[in-house]
Each structure stands twice: as C-alpha cells, then as structure tokens.
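notes to self, project folder thing:

trying the whole complex as one job this time. last attempt i did each chain seperately and stitching them together was a nightmare. two parts in total, labels are on each line so i dont mix them up again. if this works i'll redo the older ones the same way
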Amino acid sequence: MTVPREMPEKWPRVRAPGGAEEERRVRANAREYNEKFQYASNCIKTSKYNIVTFLPVNLFEQFQEVANTYFLFLLILQLIPQISSLSWFTTIVPLVLVLTITAVKDATDDYFRHKSDNQVNNRQSQVLIGGVLRQEQWMNVRVGDIIKLENNQFVAADLLLLSSSEPHGLCYIETAELDGETNMKVRQAIPVTSELGDTSKLARFDGPDTKLMQNSGRTKFKRTSIDRLMNTLVLWIFGFLVCMGVILAIGNAIWEHEVGVCFQIYLPWDEGVHSAFFSGFLSFWSYIIILNTVVPISLYVSVEVIRLGHSYFINWDKKMYCAKRRTPAEARTTTLNEELGQVEYIFSDKTGTLTQNIMVFSKCSVNGHSYGDVQDVLGHKAELGERPEPVDFSFNPLADLRFQFWDPSLLEAVKLGDPHVHEFFRLLSLCHTVMSEEKSEGELFYKAQSPDEGALVTAARNFGFVFRSRTPKTITVHELGRAITYQLLAILDFNNIRKRMSVIVRSPEGKIRLYCKGADTILLERLHPINQDLTNVTTDHLNEYAGEGLRTLVLAYKDLEESYYEDWSERLHRAGSAPEAREDRLARLYDEVEHDMMLLGATAIEDKLQQGVPETIAILTLANIKIWVLTGDKQETAVNIGYSCKMLTDDMTEVFVVTGHTVLEVREELRKAREKMMDASRSMGNGFSYQEKLSSSKLTSVLEAIAGEYALVINGHSLAHALEADMEVEFLETACACKAVICCRVTPLQKAQVVELVKKYKKAVTLAIGDGANDVSMIKTAHIGVGISGQEGIQAVLASDYSFSQFKFLQRLLLVHGRWSYLRMCKFLCYFFYKNFAFTMVHFWFGFFCGFSAQTVYDQYFITLYNIVYTSLPVLAMGVFDQDVPEQRSMEYPKLYEPGQLNLLFNKREFFICIAQGIYTSVLMFFIPYGVFADATRDDGAQLADYQSFAVTVATSLVIVVSVQIGLDTGFWTAINHFFIWGSLAAYFAILFAMHSDGLFQMFPNQFRFVGNAQNTLAQPTVWLTIALTTVVCIMPVVAFRFLKLDLKPELSDTVRYTQLVRKKQKTQHRCMRRVGRVGSRRSGYAFSHQEGFGELIMSGKNMRLSSLALSSFTARPSAGWIETLRKKKGSDGSTAGSPSGAADKTLKV
Amino acid sequence: MKNKTSSPPREGEARPSRCPDNSAFKQQKLPAWKPQLTIATVLSSFFLTGAFCLSVGVCLILSTNSVREIQIDYSDKCSDCSKLRENSSNWNKECHCSVNFMLKEDILGDVFMYYGLQNFYQNHRRYVISRSDAQLLGRNVNIQKSYCAPFTTYRNGTPMAPCGAIANSMFNDTIDLFYNLKSSVIQVPLLKTGNSWWTDKNVKFRNPKSYNLSSAFAGTARPPYWQKPVYLLDEEDERNNGYINDDFIIWMRVSAFATFRNLYRRVSRIRQFADGLPAGNYTFRISYNFPVTKFKGRKYVILSTVVWSGGSNPFLGIAYVVSGTAATLTGFVITAIHLKLRKKKAYFQK
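result (full assembly):
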C-alpha cells in the first residue's frame, strides 16, 4: 500500500460541531505536525471519577445538592451549645447514611462507565505509523493518522475515506449503530486518493470531537414531575418550618419575658443571653433543629431506593425478555420510573421500532390466481398461530433457507410449468437493481438497495428463478436449474414520479422483452385493453392485500419488435447525451415504451411489523395515550404502516394529509382540517352543548371534544413550517384533536422539535421510543426515552432511559410497571409526609408547655432512629412491592392508567390531606398523653407524670400509630411487608429496652439517661390504655373516611378489585382485534425505500468488481453522472439530511 | 458504524442466558394478603372498637371515682413564711406553719402524700439537661464538662454535689401530718422510703464509694440553695442518704409539665392507721423552705389513694367513653349511608 506523505494543498473544510465553520488543517500521517494543533485524543471518557478523586469530587457534588447542604448547616448549628437542642448525632447519623448510600451508587455507576470506556478505547485498529502498519488501540489514534480498516471492523472515530479495495473507491458501510438501519450505505473516496487500493481512512475528528460525541450533546438530567412537585413541597415545608420556628421563637421571647424572668432563681439564663428577645432568637434556631424532621433527609434517599427497586423489577421482568434477541428489558435510568405511569404522548420511530425492517414476500396474484394464503389441512384459510409447515424448497440448491412461504400451490404451479407463473418469477429475477455476490458456489448474497427489492428477488430465487450475477450488459439467471444469460439492453430506472421501473432484456432466443414493475395506480393505466378481465380480478386481489396492510406491486411485460427497439434505443441514446432537458426527454421516451403492457400479476410484500404492535397500540390508545409516529420514511410507507398497525383504520372519519410546501399552504391545510372536524362535531353533537362549549371555553377544548376519529399525516417540509413559532400552536391543536398523527420524512431535529412542542404546550408526560441514532435527539428530549435494544445499533439505547427489544413491551412497561411505580411512589410520598408531620409536630405542641425552650418530646435516640430504623422499612416495602390490582387487570382495563395521567394520586391537594392527617395525629399524640399525665400516678402511688415516661409513651404510641397506618396503606402484604412491619415494631421495642438498659447506662451515664424507663413505664396499664386510645382515635377516622370514599366515589381500581367475581362477564371487548376483512385503500409499496439512480450505476458498471467486468465488454457510457444523481437525490432527501451519514459523504462536497 | 458488507458474527453463543430468573420475587408474584375495606370489616371494627372503648371508659370512670383525694394549696396559707422566703438572704431562717383540715369520711387503703407544684417548669430544656448523671452515679467526674452550668462550682473551685439546676432547686419543705384525736395530737406515721422507682434507687443513683458518706463527699459543697449538704439529707437512714435519698431521687425525675405532683410520703398502716386515715381533724405541720411566690407558683399538699389505673385523673375514662360513643355513632352513620346508597343504586339499576 502506498500512501502519500502529504496530502496535496487541499484542506478539507469541515464544519466544526456546533455550527461555526472551523478549518482543520490536517496533514495526513504526520503526527508531529498535527500535534501542534492540540486536537483531542481519541480516548473516549465518559467516567467521572478515579480512585483518588472519588471522595473529594463526589462529596463536592453531593453537597451541591441543596438538601445535603441544608443538613450540613443543621449539623453546624447543633454544634453551638446555646442553640443545640439535639445532640449532633441525630443529624450526622442520617446524613452519613445518606451520603454513603449515594456515594456507593455513584461509585458503582462510574465503575461501569470505566468498563465500557475501556472496552471502546481498547478496540484494535491498524494505524500507519512511520510507513509501517501497526496494531494500535483506538484510543491512541490521532487526528491525521491513516488507518487501515478491514471488513466487519468497528470504527470508533470520524474518518475520511481515502481509498478502498472496491472499484472506484466505493465502500459499503453499515450505520446501524448510528441510525439503526441495517442496509449498507455507499461512500466513495475522494477521487485524488481513490486509486490507492485497500480500505484506508484518515482520522478526522477524534474522541470527544467525533460527530457522535458532539451530537450526543450533554445529557440533560431528567427529573420527573413528581420530583419537581416534591421539590416545591419541600420548599413549602421549609417555609412552614420557618413559620413554626418564628411562632415558637416569639413564644419563647414572651415566655422568657413574662415567666422565665421570675424563674431565673432556679434557672438563670445562659451566659451571654441578656434579654428575652435574644433568647427568642436562639430558640428559633433551636427549633429549626428539632423541627427539621418535617423535611426528612431520608426522603430523597428513600425515593431513590424505591425507584431502584422498580428499575430492578423492570430488569427482572421475564415478560419483557426477548428470547430471540436474548435481551432483557433494562432500566438505564433509575430516576424516572413513576413517570412511566403518567405518559400521555408516545412518539414512536417506525423502522426498527414498529417494523422489523424486514420485507417478506407474502402473497402474489398471478394471472388472476391468488397465492399465499395460509391454508390448513382442509383448505380453509387458517388463522395465524396454527400454521402448517412452510413450503419445502429443498429441490433448489440455491434457495435461501431463511425464506419462508406458506402456500404450496405456488410451488406446484412452478413445477407444473405454468407459463404465467414462470414469466412472473422471471420478471422478478430480471427487473431489479440488486447486486449479487457469490462467495462460494451456491452461496449467494444479495445487496439490495431497498429491502422490498431484496424480498422480491429472494422470492424468485427460491421459486427456482435464481438471479445469479450481472454485468453491465448481462444478467445471468438460473431458471429451474438452467443457467440463462439475458442481455440487458436498458434499465428504465425508478423515480418518484414514474413509480415504476423497467428493464429491457434480450433472451437467448433473441426476443426482446420489457419487464416492468410498479405502483398499481400507475401500471394499471398502462396496460393493454385486452387485459381488462384480468385487471378486474387482480384489482380485487390488490384490494385484499392492501386490506391486510401489505405493500403491493403490479408486474407487467411487453414484447418489443427488434426494429422498434433499435429505433427507440437510438432515440434514447441521443436523448441521453443531449445537453439540456435530458431528464425530460428520457422520461418521455420511457413513457412511450412502457405502454400497452400485458399484466402478469401482482406481488404483496409484508413490511414485517414487530410482534404485537397493533395490539399494543390498541391497548395504549385505550389507556388514553396518544401515539404519534415520527419517521424519516416516505409518506406512503408511513401511512401504510399506520394502517397495518391499526393506528389508521378505514373506519376513521378522515385522514388529513398535509403536504404543503409553503407556509400558506400548510396553514390552509391545517385550517381546513380543523374546520372539517368542527363541522362534523357540530352536526353530530346537539347544537346546545356545542354552543355552550364554544362560549364557555376556547377553541382548543372544543377541538379536544371532537366527535369522530381523525388522523393527521404531515410531511417533513410541511412540518418545518408548522413548527414555526406562529403556527406551532395551531399545528398542535389540530394534531392533538386527531386520534393518530404520523409525521413522515422528518429529520432527527424535527423529531425533537415535535416532542418539545408537545412538552411545552401540553404539560403532558411524553415518551419517545426509537432504535436508531436518528431517534437520539427525540429520545433525549422526551421526558422518557425508550430505546429498542438487541439490534445492531446501540446509540438509541445509550441515549435512552429504558431499553427493551420489542415495541410490544411498551404496554407492559407503562401499564404494569409504570402504573405500579406511580401508585407506589404516590402512596409512599403521602405516607412519608404524614409520618414525619405526625412525628415532628408533637414538638410544636409541646413547645407551648415547656416554655418554648425547644425541649424535645422524645429521647434523642428515638429522633435519630425514627426515620432510619423504626419507620423506614415498612414504607419502603410498600413503595417497592405494593400492588392495587394484579398485573393482568391493568392490561384488561387500560383505563386504570388514567389516574396517573391526570396526576390524581399525589398532587398538592393530596399532599395537604396527608399533612392535615399528620397534624391531626400529632395533636392527639400530644394532648391525649397530656391529659392523662396531668396528675397521673402509678398504680403503686409513685410518680408517672415525669418527662421520660411521657417521652416513652408518646414515642411508643407514635410508632404504633404509624405502623397501623402503614398497615392500612399497604394493600399487598407479602412476606416481606409482614417482616418489615412486625420487624420494625419489634425493633422499636428491642432498641427501646436496650437503650434503657442498665449496661449502656453504666457505660455512658450521661448519654443514656432513660435507664429503667421502658420497663417502669410500659408496665403501667394506664400507659397502655393511653397508647390504645391514641391509636384508636388516630386511625378510626381514617378508616371511616377511606371507607366512605370507597363506598360513595370508588375509583376504577377499587371497582376492579371488587369485581373479581363478575369480571368474566365484563371481559373487555377491546382485546379482540380485527384481523382481516377490511377493504382498504390500496397502497402501492414499490420502492418506498428506493433511490433513483441505481439503474444508471449498474449500467455503467461502476459498482462491479473488476473480475466480473473483465467478462463483459465494458465500454464507458456517456451517463457517468450517476454519482451526482445519487447525491442530488440524497440532498433533497429529508430523511438523511440530518443523519450522521459518515465522513465520506460530507467530504464529497469539498 | 460498521465497515462493509454483511452482519457481524454473532458473538459468544455460549454466553450465559440473560433471561431473568423466574422467581416469584423477581416477577412480583409473591403470594400476598390483600386486605380490603369491606362494609363487614369496617362496621365490625367500628362497633367492636366502640364497645371496647365504652367498657374500658366506664371501668376507668368507676375506678377513678373510688379514689379519695384531698388537695390543699398551702402557698398562701403561711403568708409570713412566703414573704420571708422571697428574700433569699433569709435562707437559713426557719419558718413553720400549720394547715388544718377535716376528713368527713375515712380514707381506706393505702394513702399517699404528695407535694404538688404549679408553674414550675421542670420540663424546660435548659433545666432538663442541667444535671450530671455520671456524678449522681457516684463517679468522680469533671462536672465542668456537663451541662450543670451555672451550678457547677463555687468561685473558689469547690464543685457542687450534686450539680445542676435540678438538684439546686430541690423541693425542701418538710411536711408532717398530725391527727387530732380528742385534744390529743397523734403524728401520723409516714414512710419516707420505697417511694421512688426501683431502678432509680438501685441503678441510676449511687453514692460515691468511701468508708462513710461524709468522707465520700469530701471536697464538694452543697448546692447554693440547699440548707444542708447532700450527705445529711437523711441522717437516720444510711440507705436513704446522699444521692440515694428518695426525696432527692424523686425530685431528680423531672416532670413532663409545669404542673406536677411528686410522691412525698406514704402513710404507714400501723395502729389506728392500719385501714387508712380515719375521719377527723388533721393538721399539716410544714416547715416552709421552698419559695414559690417569686415565679408565681403554687404548692400543694395532697393526700390520695390509688387504684389499678393510678390516681384520681378522670381524663382517660372520659376520653374512652367519648371515643367509644363516637366510634359507635360513626358505625351507625356508615351503616345508614351504605344502606341509602345501596337503595339508590338499586333504584338506578331498575
């Protein structure tokens, strides 16, 4: 391999990431020179810490959390003796616990990042250093290095293609990791270097500068709406805390002024305190310390723990494991789970997400006979799931084993020699632009430019018409074992207007025949009138196929007279070399010859949906989730898929298609759509209610209450206009009034914009699901991003919050996991705030009776342990394990999902109810023992009304009340719940007696002052009666309210729980899906993913290996502009404009 | 990005399966008890609770009603003394006064004598912490490190024993009870020990170890408000002296609220007091040492019997009756609502 020491004075101008033009001067293979510019190294680093920096950096980060800083501040306050109302450890123990848990989690995360970084960085590459190829790790590759790549190697940098072993410096790359598309993309080396042989590339951007790393952007830290609400509430609580502090501080000042002054003989003021006012000031801080438990430090940690638990349940879910791809579902973000229960909008990519991106030759109609229906033994159409054996293609050594067909009669027809069937498959084996590669005898590989074509040629191959090889001038086909070489006279290439392609071939017998395949609408008009009867039958078949959501093509042929062809070909040649209007003239000639054709039949290709897509979409729709498909595909494809996955149905009142190219057109189309919807609802609904609605609310709500089902299909360019600032609201309103929205030909950026738009105006939770790099922006923008994993591409997965390998798992993720997560989180939060208010507010009431001195009601150890030991685990168990209805029910009754969308289970109102309950509890918790203890004595006459007994009584009744309350809240008592709830109670008493034991007191007499208290106090019947009364009075009203609510206004979930017995009757009808029988609008599937220009490429022979070229009499043809054509098409092709299409593409524009 | 043709070889077919375990725990299928609020459970719980509360309440009220109690506010009965005590310089002047009262009926059973204080904030934070439990355990500790300030040491450095505001403010009135039987005055025999908690007396409070008590407290001084040092609290009984003096122990167990009563003495059931206190005229002879007027406090002396639920506090009984009634009523209300609703539902179903 020879490589120039220096590139010529022609610097590739590359656009710097971020938009501004930046010039990179790179001298190939000259490290010393390039190092002057200090380009980034190719080392990918996504990790945050190393061993040394971990502790300081992590602590620094953790203390940036407001909550942690707040507790540090409290800790400092507690060290001031005049203020300290609590020992320092009451704060430091939970704080250290919290910091440790978070640090361990961070460390684990970072460990995995290190591991994946290392994996990427240590991939091997061959780099030319000092004229010798060396094995180098990718992380050591520098800008300007020349790299040799071999087949099937990973590329971990942006590269400039210098040359390749393929002719003309062509190079086929797979961009699955970028966009999830598995078909090959062609890149060509720049002409200067293209003849160098072997694939070598120049590193252009490295490491963090690569397009990928640049585009991946900064991962925004996603917060759930519950998070935001929680933060608001914590702020409110904080305000409330300050208010309480102020009230008590004023109380303290007054008390000290009125009472404390007189009491000074027994209790002089502290040194330095000379006025009641200052005493009040100090007591403010003291109260902040003891009341800080209303803002519980363990809240955030507990929430994280619960979410982590939910994430594990997602990871562990066997029903979300795809055995085929061996990928389990994965919750990559552990902080978003409960938002899964609140999703209102789903934005889905099409290819790879809804569809498998596999085209399957499914049915065909030949000469008025339809083949391909799955038949059972009796010859009836069989239902899916009870398929017989597929057709056996073993007679054909060249058959593709992966191809499956279920109707044996077609093969029989081939074997019987039905001429129509033969001609049908002959056409399929000849009329295409597929390239073949035969690695060894009989091992054929087709490089199809569109998967549709691949499917058709493969079908022909299996039925005995094997396309074997081609040269620019010939096509060799094995027809039922016989090798026949056809002379390829012309390819009348595909384009969007023609919607068909033809080939003109000369058979070995010398007959010239034109074979054409194309969209039915176009082709049926171009048939010879003689075909009328056949056309009618075929049309019926086409309708039937379309009804099943298949992509159809019509096939036809025409025999050409030798003389006519000569003349035509002469004219074609002239037109091809004409200086101007070349394309028009060619088109006219094509048009002329593709006329009066004979109908052969039709094919139906199934764009294979992922498993269970229509069912999933149906259930999600019933759960009131709106699904928008955002795809880079063409409109026809997108609409087709919309039908086949039942998003669009022919029952729909109307499907609006917006394809306007100008702002005005788009606006007009949107307006018309809206008017139509409103007209319809006006005529359908009665006038009164409509008028009322109109007068009472704005247009939006009218649109949302629209009767009838509508769908909106909008094109990429129209969308660009629709997303402009002045039209976006209009667009959104229209779109949201529709049941289904399909945006086609959208760029990745537009995908993100659409998501952003909905996020901005709808205040709804959005979920984006996709599989390729072009979905990354949308995945990152949406509240929740889901990546389809288990395929080649991992970019989407890397950017996603959740990943699994099948679209259908989405329903389980949302309806089961999401719903439960939301429910559990809400229940958890309600209880958590309740228990902390009940716990803390007692101090407030006590303040009025202890001279506002910030004396705590409880023992300091109780305060330390209450949140982290006595009450943490039962509520965590509830937050992790609770279930209101079994999982099957949430699938059966998708409406159960609604409370999450409407945010009903935890909102400000619910919060105030919890708080009120907490305060109510605290009042009883204080005043009942207060009443009892006023003049109480023990049954042996000794004192009972002492502070310590009071503390133990209140603490015990508090623990019992909150335990009973959690028991009441827990709807799903697993063994773990039992263990935690009973265990917490047991732990409370065990710790209580341990703390009050002689041994500890002997060791630390000043710390464990409550010695003997537990056994003395808890031996008194009065104390137990007090505890019992408190419990009854705190709990019974809650039971009454809950029951009345249940009785008077039951939620759906309550009803579902109640109607377990009658549920069979109600078994929802939604689940049965209409399978077939819909007479659909026909959708021609030809070359939905086809590009123009390939025919020319083939005829020029440029993409053929020299070995095969040598066989042919290759002469340069005037039409060598294929690459321009390719590029032109690409440029206008919205779908690829924004995808990171590799370096070679960009450099071509130098 | 992949370079050139065909899919990559599937790596590691022998990889361990990534399929999640099919355990009940991981699949969230643990067997569970799913309690539901049904009309039956709710109503039964309300009526049962109501019945329970009512019966407990009635029992409590009946038993507290059987408690006999006499409470006498003597803070102003000895106005001379209270004036005298207002000036703290008169701390060593003795002042005695008597309070007479009459029992119309016998008080049968164990009779307990309490002193009560009102408006004395024993539950104030600074008061509560102002003690050294290590010192009270008889250990030789540096009380400067405790929260006893300002009652730690005298200016000359002599530590106070015991230290702290609680000990310093100990109630130091002495109250004797006399039974006036036909012009003869009989002193009612009172027990001054056995009044405190066993754990306090035997675990929490210990005297420093030495051959005798006064030497054990050598080098320490009495708290400023005390009239005698700690080792002279009860000269008659070695086991009721020093830190383990019952009056001291009881005082050191601070009360939960500003109004409280502490057990002072028990009537010894001997001779004519074997069944309790017989009806008749009695006199409290009080040595008035503890000033309360300064902080607008009151002090009481109380004679009371006890039952299983303690003293004469009627609160718990009443609270139980009220809650029991409320629970029962709620039960009826719920029944009514439920029935009405069912009728309505049935109506709609027709």
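what i see at first glance: Chain A touches chain B through 116 residues (CB under 8 Å).
need to look closer tmrw
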